[in-house]
Amino acid sequence: MPETITALSISITEKAAKKVTQFASKEAKGDEYGLRVGVKGGGCSGLTYTLSVESGPQADDKIIEDQGIRLFVPKKSFVFLAGTELDFSDGLNGKGFVFNNPNAKSTCGCGTSFSV
Amino acid sequence: MQPTPLYEAQKQLGAVHTDIAGWAVAATYGNVADEYMVTQEGVGIVDRSHMGRILARGSDTLDLLNRLSTNLVDPLDIGKGESTVITTGKGRILDWITMLHHSDDVLLVTSPERRDTVAEWIDTYTFDENTTLEDITPSTVMLSFIGPKAETMLDTLLGTSAGRLARLDCMTVTLNGHEVIVARTNPGGQRGFDIIAPVEAAQELWAAGLELGVSPVGQDAIEALRISAKLPKWGHELTEEHNPLEAGLESEVSWTKGCYTGQEVVARLFNYQRIQRHMVALELPASGAFAPDMPLLVDGETAGYLTSVSPLPGKDTVAALASLRTAYVELDRVLQVGEVGGPSARVTWVPEFASEDATF
Predict the structure, then answer these.
(1) Please, which residues bridge with residue B198 across strands?
(2) Residue A73 falls within a domain, yes or no?
(3) Per-residue pLDDT band at B359 (split at 50, 70, 90)
(4) Residue A17 phi, psi (nearest 5)
(5) What is the pLDDT of residues B147-205, one digit of tens each?
(6) Does A26 map to a domain?
(7) B217 in the same domain as B188
(8) Interface contact flag, B264 A41, Cβ < 8 Å
(9) Residue B132: enclosing H or E segment and its boundaries?
């Protein structure tokens, strides 16, 4: 069963939340949607982030609510993401979604990959 | 030492066994020079069951391995294989493996000492992927048929045309009711095939090979082949202290496939010419006593060290591989082995990308 977490372990900024809402309505994900935030192996430093708007959580996902957005976090990814703030950066130097992850000891040049 | 299922059969043929990663591996059947010649002129059978064999199942296996290693391994059609280096985030070598996409599953052949490390590494980096691993080393054997006549012999043995397989091509064949994997892996850099079979088929396969006139060949002869072919090996040229470029494995690195773990470091080392040392081949006099880790000197300065040494059957020289600091990497350079005034070694081969003519 998905586990709902009340204490904020992963947070999302207002700006990022707004973007997620826009994507969700564009993709017509329904009312139960959430942002699936995880990591996967690869990228120059060993781990890369994964992001997708999903219509519901998967079994064993942790569920975190912040800024009106439900974040679905796969259990194995959670250890690497605890304490992360998800932001959105736009403008000329914008990078899109940005992970401010206190667990990341090093990141690669393009910033999409990290190691712990 | 753990015996392979063919230990007793090898003993009966006079095998002397040696310890490789805890396995009792046939070093020789009495005459290394003869065994070496078999691989040059006929076909030999070699028990390489001490190699690690991990079966990877699931639709995300190729994608996952492509993200964790240096070579382009996704896509990889069924029937094809590829070798690739699993690297750490610092671009150091975890292992040099061969992937055989023989069916829906992929067989990963690892160095003998590294099968647990490789499995644990892949497992650590498996998150949502549909990939599961099974260590099939204990339940299978790996027999290699090596030499210019290997194709003909294999076709007779298997009753199918395995000889037309190109390098690293693989297939599954049913042999007397047992499903076996056949792959042209060219062990030791010589023409040849690996057969991976269930333990229950081991004696039968071994006996069938011998009946067809295939001679048993031990690990010492294979080591001479490997060193002559400039192939690096775990614990010698391949360690967690080296990156793939330092170990002569530039050809195992895809420069266009995009990110994999360690990619940034490997690409920087190559593009900015910051490779600190290279694997080279040396020729040593037959009269000396040489061993891995012996220092190599130029004008009293340490230029590198020996990593692998083997007498060359039929020749009065010893072949060696060494790790040399980049400044000393030059064809025909002469180095002293062990100490000032020690025996002379001559550099007989340097990787193409490390030579002076290489254009970066």
Answers:
(1) B140
(2) yes
(3) very low
(4) -60, -40
(5) 999 999 999 998 888 878 999 999 999 988 999 999 999 999 999 999 999 999 999 99
(6) yes
(7) yes
(8) no
(9) strand B132-135
Best of A37, A44, A81, A113 to disrupt the B interface (most B CBs within 10 Å) is A44
Higher pLDDT, residue B183 or B313: B183
Tell whether B359 is covered by a domain.
no
Across the interface, do B263 and A109 touch by the CB < 8 Å criterion?
A: no
In-domain check, residue A114: no
Domain holding B191, by residue range, is 2-51+137-228
pLDDT in tens, B123-143: 999 998 999 999 999 999 999
Chain B positions in Cβ-Cβ contact with residue A39 (cut-off 8 Å): 127
Nearest CA in chain A to B88: A46
Residue A88 lies in a domain: yes
Q: How far A33 CA sits from the closest chain B CA (Å)?
A: 19
| Domain coverage including residue A69 | 3-105
**What's the pLDDT tens digit per position in A44-89?**
889 999 999 999 999 989 999 999 999 999 999 999 999 999 999 8
Q: What is the CATH number of the domain that holds A84?
A: 2.60.300.12
Cβ-count burial of B160 within 10 angstroms (0-12 exposed, 13-18 middle, 19+ buried)? middle
- In this prediction, residue A1 has a pLDDT band, given cuts at 50, 70 and 90, of low
- B8 and B34 share one domain: yes
State the total domains in chain B. Answer: 3
pLDDT digits (tens, 9 = 90+) for B47-64: 999 999 999 999 999 999
- Whether residue B245 lies inside any domain: the answer is no
Note whether residue B108 is domain-resident.
Answer: yes
Report the Cα B75 to chain-centroid distance in Å.
23
Which residues of A sit within 8 Å Cβ distance of B?
Answer: 38-48, 50, 74, 76-77, 106, 108-109, 112-113, 115
